[in-house]
Amino acid sequence: MRAVVWQGIGEIAVEEVPDPKIEQPTDAIVRLTASAICGTDLHFIRGTMPGMKPGTILGHEGVGVVEQLGDGVRNFNLGDRVVIASTIACGNCSYCRAGYYAQCDKANPNGTGTAFFGGPESAGGYPGLQAEKARVPFANLGMVKLPDELSDDQAILLSDIFPTGFMAAELAEIRLGNTVAVFGCGPVGQFAIASARLLGAGRIFAVDRVASRLAMARAQGAEVIDFSKEDPVTTIKQLTENIGVDRVIDAVGVDAERPHQGPAAKKIKPQAQQLDAEAKQVAPKQHPDGDNWHSGDAPSMALQWAVESLAKAGSLSIIGVYGDNNRVFPIGAAMNKNLTMKMGNCNHRAYIPRLIELVMARAIDPSLILTQHEPLTDAISAYKAFDTRQESWIKVELLPTH
Ligand SMILES: NC(=O)c1ccc[n+]([C@@H]2O[C@H](COP(=O)([O-])OP(=O)(O)OC[C@H]3O[C@@H](n4cnc5c(N)ncnc54)[C@H](O)[C@@H]3O)[C@@H](O)[C@H]2O)c1
Ligand SMILES: [Zn+2]
Ligand SMILES: [Zn+2]
After folding, report:
1. Fold identical between 2-160+346-397 and 162-343?
2. How remote is the CA of residue 345 from the centroid of ligand 3, in Å?
3. Ligand 3 centre and the CA of 138: distance in Å?
4. How far is 111 from 103, CA to CA, in rounded Å?
5. Residues with CB under 6 A from ligand 1
6. Averaged confidence pLDDT in the chain
7. Residue 23 pLDDT more than 50?
8. Per-residue confidence at 83, pLDDT binned at 50, 70, 90?
9. Structural domain boundaries of the chain?
10. Per-residue b/e over 252-269, b at no fewer than 16 CB within 10 Å?
11. Which fold has domain 2-160+346-397?
12. Hey, what CATH topology would domain 162-343 get?
């Protein structure tokens, strides 16, 4: 079968690889019909998330049809159409039973946090979902049956992006009427905005510098701030009578960028050396190719702005991904404001059934963020367009070749 394979930092390709096989009784083999690209995939290629093994199939978003079932999978039939949760979890350990699927004790052989498809060895090293077929471990839990009414375009965002945005809003402890700021308006940020709205937020600020993404946030009713034109902290303070926001969601992560023009760039000038050193520590090895695969030049920028824009006793939700080598956080400022912080990898499976209902009820329109469809054969050019922010979200269509 064909799949998108990580060969090294800055090197990915569509390759012919062996078909997956049932290895455990709780496995299923799914013939994928759709996958997608997430900001997490970009971290691996840009060199900001270490530990990928060459030859790993990328991708952790998938919708498809069940083709084979192990004897231990009793709740699905061959031919069922399913969405696959990005995070792999056993369902039996104490963490799974408490809904902390991203901390499953069994799915990650290394036992240190999340296990997911298409990730580094520290996350289990499982082959990913940007492929024609995939082995789904613990398939009884990790697959969720899709109603016929949901198209692939609607269903694919339920694998990762929507649950992640929703959990981000939940971790932020958004209550009715709260004023919220979402840093980063990529796919995760867009769904964090939508989820903040669903949880009853009063005002939502959206911060980024990509015009098309800010336009999408504005179309959702968010009040937009372009950090290449204004300083986000000053503007948030101005627009909230100097109070700040009650809740912040960091939907940026390790590839955060610093402003290069406008008043925000001027303000952070004294920090330039510290940010350079941080960026170097986070991504010691890089392999840019023209406009592509450039790592972020200010890993702690979004976190700094988040803490500065929060009102006293506010809450910070960190859903953007940071690796073990990220060491910089404005702890003093956060402590002295009595902030609450919650963070982590998404417990996808815990949210998927509920979110299917919300999409069915048209509480959210996935077409809002899906800007492009590409066949697997064009996956590399799709990656390049997503990496340079020309497209907001790209569904990879897995058309049968035989
Ligand atoms: N915790 C989880 O389980 C989980 C799941 C999925 C994705 N993620 C993470 O969420 C993050 C966002 O994912 P995505 O797919 O939307 O990524 P993305 O790369 O498409 O979007 C990131 C956005 O942040 C913007 N940005 C960069 N620097 C900024 C700054 N200083 N302030 C404000 N905005 C800034 C970029 O312009 C971009 O639009 C990534 O770190 C990804 O790894 C986490
Ligand atoms: Zn993801
Ligand atoms: Zn478990």
Report:
1. no
2. 14
3. 9
4. 8
5. 38-40, 42-43, 160, 164, 183-189, 207-210, 213, 227, 251-253, 256-257, 301-302, 319-321, 345-346, 389
6. 95
7. yes
8. very high
9. 2-160+346-397, 162-343
10. bbbbbbbbeeeebeeebe
11. Quinone Oxidoreductase; Chain A, domain 1 (3.90.180)
12. Rossmann fold (3.40.50)
